[in-house]
Amino acid sequence: MTTKDLDASTRAIVIDPGVTLKLRRAGQDTGTVLWRDMIRTTRQPEMLAFAVVMGVFFLVLFNYVFGGAIGAGAGFDYLQYLLPGVLVITALQGAQQTSMGLAADFNEGVNDRFRSLPMNQSAVITGRTIADALRNIAGLVLVALIGMLMGFRFSSFGGAVVAIALAIGMGYGFSWLGAAIAAKVRQPDMVGMLSMFWLFPLMLASTAFAPVESMPGWLQPLVRYQPISVASDAVRGLVNGIPVGDRITLTLVWIAVLLVVFVPMSVRLYRKVS
Amino acid sequence: MATRGSGPVITAQNLRKTFGSVQAVKDVSFDVEPGQVLGLLGPNGAGKTTTINMITTLLQIDGGEATVGGFDVRTQPEVVRQLIGLAGQSAAVDEKLTARENLELFGRLYKIPRNERRRRIEKLIERFDLGAFADRPASSYSGGERRRLDVVAALVAEPPAVFLDEPTTGLDPRSRSELWNTVRSLASNGVAIVLSTQYLEEADRLADEILVIDRGEIVAQGTPDALKHDLERDVLEVHVVDRTDVDTARELLGLDANVTTDVEARRIDIPVPGGADRSLDLLRQLQDGGVSISNFQLRQPTLDDVFLALTGSSVTETEEVTT
Questions:
Q1: What is the pLDDT of residue A72?
Q2: Phi and psi torsions of A159, nearest 5°
Q3: CB 3.0–4.6 Å: which of A24, A56, A206, B273 could bond A229 by disulfide?
Q4: Which of B60, B108, B189 sits opposite A3 (nearest CB)?
Q5: Which of A15, A113, A117 sits opposite B79 (nearest CB)?
Q6: Residue A100 domain boundaries
């Protein structure tokens, strides 16, 4: 190392970057974090495998164990009903992984390094949510393919693409909920437990596995309008080529609500310095 | 740029930090000039990491102020972050990434242009001998390799101010001395360095100026030599033939608690304000009392002696309890 190499006077310091430069750098930083998280994704294939295995587990369990009971009574092919719900739930598993990944960053101490760097701090979260959404696409396509091997039929390619996009979108919205939990709690174990608290009730009290009509009357309104239900219904309509009514609109509304609430909240919690 | 030729690169003035009811840092002030190494010496929990985290924008400053390159840490953290490199306890690397990828990651986040970045990374890998493991994920590294990458990651931006928080804790002697060389070469290139350590030897060897810090307060400050000199007494180190003579010697001389004895090593350390004359007296007393002395030397106090005198507890003892 020569003196010249470390001569700080040759360095350009940005004192007042202005809005344009700030935004451009925020974009750059998000891209950098995304690049980093994609490398991590390829080094941890078990993350993707876990999401897919959970999806397949639900497909097999519900189709072969409960399929007869639920489907036969209603007089329809249960697999055609089930797969859309499983796609949505697989996407939400990805959201849980956003939570776990960010908590791991806090644990490993790499977040402290990030916080000492001249970078846009929310890029750490944004980059990760995008990386997780990309991994989710792979997971959903794999689950869909396995569903097709089990006998599932998409009514149209276009419908399948829009349906998967909606499921990914809902997963993305929940990624920010996961990010907020991770930024608040910062302990991987606690984050894992808290994720179960929102994921399981939402998942089971939804139309992902069974039609709302089969549930008690007092529960029906809650189930009908909760995010996993509206997304499951929207995806189900699209892949089966049946009318979706208000379901796509409601899905988009839910995604918007999640983003409006949890993007600022998780960024604020992440930046919070004791 | 503001750091050039205009005094200290890093300043801290009356820094304070409270966690709940605990005052982690009470009143810490110092300046670090270009090319200077400031050693923060103290046991675990003394407030070293908290001090560093405040100046590196990781923790809010509760009271006092800090500047880097003339920029206020509180009001211009974005600028300060462009001027610092942080390594050690709190600032880790990404374990799933290789050394090369980690350096690329941090280089990009520092906004170093692509070609310049590539050039610097290759140079750093070569200079700090990371080549053998540069393309393996960091999770597979040995402790020494990991620490080296930690420190190098702080240097990608060639910052004028570098903070090393206990960079050698848990390292084997060889890795430790390699890191020492790294620190020296940084300082000789004009980088201002704040180095925290629990190791007296490390502070003694590397630091131009030492802050002895205990329970959030500076208990002594000065060059290693000045600190030793401030004790205004040499240490007479006596080795005896029989282990039982260690206690005999203690009784003979009526020594107070300030004297450290080591029965296993058959050694007695006696602070001697009077220097040579007083030492001869003491040795004669021992001889007359029938203690057979195998060896003795009159030496300057070590930093361990200094710390013992200042805080009433040894750094090394505290370290064993807490780690």
A1: 59
A2: -60, -40
A3: A206
A4: B189
A5: A15
A6: 19-271
| Percent of chain A that is helix, strand, coil (3-state, to 5) | 80, 0, 20
* A117 is a domain residue: yes
Chain A residue at shortest CA distance from B110: A118
pLDDT tens digits, one per residue of B197-212: 988 889 989 999 999 9
The predicted-structure confidence for B139-155, as pLDDT tens digits, reads as follows: 999 888 888 899 999 99
Count of domains for chain A: 1
Q: Is residue A14 part of a domain?
A: no
Closest residue on chain A to B61 (Cα): A274
- CB-based contact A118 B127, cutoff 8 Å: no
Q: How many residues does chain A have?
A: 274
Residue among A106, A113, A254, A232 at smallest CA distance from A179: A106
For residue B164, what are the β-bridge partners? Answer: B87, B195
According to DSSP, residue A207 is labeled T
Beta strands in B54-179, from DSSP E residues, in sequence order: 63-68, 71-72, 84-88, 161-165
Which residue in B82, B94, B137 is closest to A118 by CB distance?
B82
To test the contact with chain A by mutation, choose from B105, B141, B151, B169 the residue with the greatest count of A C-beta atoms within 10 A, namely: B105
| A6 domain-assigned | no
In a domain, A113, yes or no: yes
- Spell out the domains of chain B, with CATH numbers in brackets: 10-223 (3.40.50.300), 232-300 (3.30.70.100)
Please tell me the distance from the alpha carbon of residue A158 to that of residue B266, in angstroms, as a whole number.
87
- Residues forming a β-bridge with B18: B23
